[in-house]
Design goal:
The complex is a heterodimer. Chain A is α/β, with parallel strands linked by helices. Chain A is built from 14 helices and 10 strands. Chain A has one domain: Peroxisomal Thiolase, Chain A, domain 1 (3-Layer(aba) Sandwich), CATH 3.40.47.10. Chain A has a 10-stranded mixed β-sheet with strand order 3-2-4-5-1-6-10-9-7-8, with helices on both faces. Chain A is globular and about 65 Å long. Chain B has a single domain, classed as Peroxisomal Thiolase, Chain A, domain 1 (3-Layer(aba) Sandwich), CATH 3.40.47.10. Chain B contains 11 helices and 12 strands. In chain B, helix 2 crosses helix 5. The chains are: A alpha/beta, B alpha/beta. Chains A and B meet through helix 4, helix 5, strand 3, helix 6 and helix 7 of A and helix 3, helix 4, helix 5, strand 4 and helix 6 of B.
Chain lengths: ~450, ~375
């Protein structure tokens, strides 16, 4: 019998908040974290915006207790801060009390420093400060976070591009389900770098005005940075310790699009398969999903492919959905965990965070995201679905109808959230997070 | 509990492991019968003739590690599907593709980084950026096989490959899939060699690689490779070995902790020291970190047959994938090649334990058994 997996702690550091509470406040007040590039010098400054964490590396060093230390990368520091918050939020005092693992995800690792090293090294192979390159590899950040938290039983790192940290949640869940670990801290961390900024620019998928997910006039993504971690515990421990359970990991799936190294297939095969697997594992019908936190990068290709996959899975009644990348930017290896934390906040506050920067629906799709203007309609939709899902004919109730019924209410009933993260290499992942209900 | 079998192998390495033209491949009396020795402090893979594995129009653009990984994975699937006697060849399509790599697609990463710096962030082309992603090898294999299944890549230094094995085993045991194409890949580039040389990783004067353990200089010899395994929940006539268990741990405080972890590992399987017939050690010729292996062998396996392998493939993050290839071959052929022996071979060859660590930090046990 596989054990159930509960989320008992969360931590986040991203462009809209240095912790969970700040992030929630920004989401509730629809505040975007996208702005000017300040962290490094680049010729793209003033052209492309970024969603930077509003703390300098120096401030992060002080915050994590390493003031002045020179051999810790920004990726690592962001991860330490978020992972620590998750641990505290789960009320964990003795990390050695149970068999505990750390599974982190990152796409660039210490690249922010490797860039500096390489400039010197290219000119002369004897040059370049070694301190800037020794932390390059992805495992470095994870090992430092592990030692910061005191974890040594099982430590590993996943890198599958932009789906990396959802995949960390999946692997961690499997290790708990099979009893290989009692508790595992899962998540991801990535800092902004010139490498990724220039890389995405060569693909011509950066939006100069900040991303507009699922909008007809979207022009690309906005890079962000951050870290997010979740504490997963087996039901045995959670019950024994009388833990506050924030959500349950009820389903997940990973599939490969096998279409192109970077582009998504026109029929959304990978996304369709990932969502189908996640739903199947959760045992839920598509109609039971109350909210979808879509991948929604804002690129022409992703949003179309993902939108088509959503329509394939959910038919005429696609649940309310939004991309939260208009707040946090696309945090790459951290994105899956960042959005899992946001999904947990949606469940625990019973609120849908609207998709920012949306004005015009995509002409290829019948669906549109929840926006500031339509979220009340969304809440109505959810309530109607719960009342009697069979009676729903229209996708959204008209907004005038809503205003009378839900004049000042953001609150909706959210029991099950689906979150998508898709990456290069055709790597598509979906996860279902559910409100914890005793007696289920 | 579901047993997991290794039913196919494919390895591209500095040895003649990918010599598919020789129809005797892969199990044959030629198993490391003519080991290659290099007078160098870095060992590169033998080009297996990539055009046999990869469409010509793709070869030109692919980074070397991608080619190595694709070739090794295709060899592995071909091997797993090879019929003999009355059974015909089966067409293998994996349920999952899981890889491990310490540093990923280094050549492409370096290429993009260099052109970004040299051209001051202008006039860049996307190919090397696209291929720099750590999961490119697994993604390309999926693309070429049109495999829509589970696709993961682990990137944790010296336990990247072991992490991939643990994931595959866990999910085969859960019944999530019945098989998984699992492998480890790492490439050595001129720049990564130059950088790690400055860090003192390698012997300063070139040696004959075959004499690795007879050289007293500090450092090891650099290597690279791609080795893939077709793991499956059922035994076939082609099975090499049972993949019994894998365990990893970080930075043990002392030799005693390694020993304790070993005993817990064996006890969890109902086994003891006497049940292990051969221990393959990750000795890499660096006296500073080989001490851990000597302590381990002397304390826990004083009477057991010992072997080593890094004189054949060099040191790299996923070198344990080469050791797993070797152990699989040993169990299948029931023969320990002369070149890997440290002491007398055993009379019985039922269980092979691989103990490897990367620079004293990432430690792993991999246990294989005769099916």
């Amino acid at each position: 019998m596989l054990k159930r997996v509960y989320i008992t702690g969360i931590g986040i550091t991203c462009a809209i908040g240095n912790n969970v509470e700040e992030t929630l406040q920004s989401l509730l007040s629809e505040k975007s974290g996208i702005g000017e590039i300040t962290l490094f010098s680049t010729r793209h400054k003033g052209i492309f915006p970024l969603a930077e964490v509003k703390m300098t590396t120096k401030a992060l060093l002080e915050n994590t207790g390493f003031p002045g230390k020179k051999n810790i990368t920004r990726t690592t520091l962001l991860g330490m801060k978020a992972a620590k918050e998750a641990l505290v939020s789960a009320g964990i005092q003795d990390i050695k009390q149970y068999k505990t693992g750390l599974i982190s995800a990152t796409t660039v690792g210490g690249m922010d420093r490797s860039e500096d090293f390489y400039a010197g090294f290219l000119a002369d192979p004897r040059k370049g400060r070694m301190i800037d390159i020794v932390n390059h590899d992805c495992g470095d950040s994870t090992e430092r976070i592990a030692s910061y938290l005191g974890i040594s039983d099982f430590v590993t790192t996943i890198s599958t591009a932009c789906s990396s940290s959802v995949n960390a949640i999946m692997f961690g869940s499997n290790l708990i389900k099979t009893g290989k670990l009692d508790r595992v801290i899962v998540g991801g961390t990535d800092s902004v770098t010139k490498f990724t900024l220039n890389g995405f620019n060569t693909l011509m998928i950066l939006d100069k005005t900040g991303c507009h997910p699922f909008d007809e006039n979207r022009a690309g993504l906005t890079l962000g940075e951050g870290a997010a971690f979740l504490v997963l515990e087996s039901e045995d421990i959670a019950v024994k310790e009388n833990k506050k359970i924030l959500a349950e990991v009820s389903g997940y799936g990973n599939a490969n699009d096998a279409y192109h190294q970077t582009a998504s297939s026109p029929d959304g095969t990978g996304a369709f398969l990932a969502m189908s697997k996640a739903l199947k594992m959760s045992g839920l019908e598509p109609g039971e999903i109350d909210y979808i936190n879509v991948h929604g990068t804002g690129t022409l290709n992703n949003d179309l492919s993902e939108g088509i996959a959503l329509e394939r899975i959910f038919g005429d009644i696609v649940p309310p959905f939004s991309s939260t990348k208009g707040y946090t930017g696309h945090t790459l290896g951290a994105a899956g965990a960042v959005e899992a934390v946001i999904s947990i906040l949606a469940i625990n506050n019973q609120v849908i965070f609207p998709n920012l920067n949306f004005t015009t629906p995509m002409k290829e799709l019948h669906i549109r995201p929840v926006t500031v203007e339509t979220r009340h309609a969304a809440s109505s939709l959810i309530e109607t679905r719960h009342a009697s899902s069979s009676q729903i004919e229209t996708r959204h109730a008209s907004s005038s109808q809503i205003e009378t019924r839900h004049a000042s209410s953001l609150r909706v009933e959210i029991r099950h959230v689906l979150s998508n993260s898709f990456g290069f290499g055709g790597n598509n992942s979906s996860i279902v997070l559910s409100k914890y209900e005793t007696g289920l | 509990m579901t047993k997991i079998y290794i039913n196919g192998l494919g390895s591209v390495s500095p040895q003649k492991t990918a010599d598919y033209r020789n129809r005797a491949y892969p199990v044959s009396a030629t198993f490391l019968a003519e080991p290659l020795s290099y007078e160098n402090n870095q060992l590169k893979c033998i080009d297996p003739g990539y055009k046999e594995f990869i469409p010509a129009e793709l070869i030109r653009r692919m980074g070397r590690i991608i080619k190595m990984g694709v070739a090794a994975s295709k060899l592995c699937l071909k091997d797993a599907g090879t019929g003999s006697g009355e059974t015909s060849e089966r067409n293998i399509s994996p349920d999952a593709i899981i890889t491990g790599t310490g540093l990923g697609c280094l050549e492409d990463t370096e290429k993009f980084l260099a052109s970004m710096i040299r051209n001051n962030e202008e006039f860049l082309t996307p190919t090397s950026f696209i291929q720099s992603t750590h999961n490119t090898v697994a993604g390309q294999i999926a693309l070429l096989l049109k495999c829509h299944g589970y696709n993961f890549t682990y990137v944790h230094r010296g336990i990247s490959f072991e992490s991939a094995l643990i994931d595959a085993m866990t999910q085969i045991q859960m019944g999530e899939f019945s098989n998984a194409l699992t492998g480890g890949t790492d490439e050595l580039t001129a720049n990564s060699f130059a950088i790690t040389s400055r860090l003192g990783y390698w012997k300063q004067k070139p040696i004959h690689s075959i004499d690795l353990l007879r050289d007293s200089q500090r450092g090891s010899i650099a290597g690279e490779g791609a080795s893939f395994f077709f793991l499956e929940n059922q035994q076939t006539e082609h099975t090499y070995a049972e993949l019994t268990e894998v365990s990893t741990f970080l930075q043990p405080a002392s030799h005693k902790e390694v020993s304790d972890r070993l005993h817990i590992f064996l006890a969890s399987l109902g086994l003891g020291i006497k049940d292990i017939d051969l221990v393959i050690l990750g000795l890499n010729g660096d006296p500073r970190t080989d001490l851990i292996y000597h302590d381990f062998a002397e304390t826990d396996f004083p009477l057991t047959s010992l072997g080593y392998f890094k004189h054949l493939c060099g040191e790299y993050h996923t070198a344990s994938a080469f050791a797993t290839w070797l152990a699989s071959m040993v169990l299948k052929t029931q023969m320990i090649p002369e070149v890997i022996r440290i002491n007398q071979p055993p009379t019985r060859l039922d269980r092979v334990l691989i103990y490897n660590h990367y620079r004293g930090t990432n430690h792993a046990f991999i246990l294989l058994s005769r099916p």
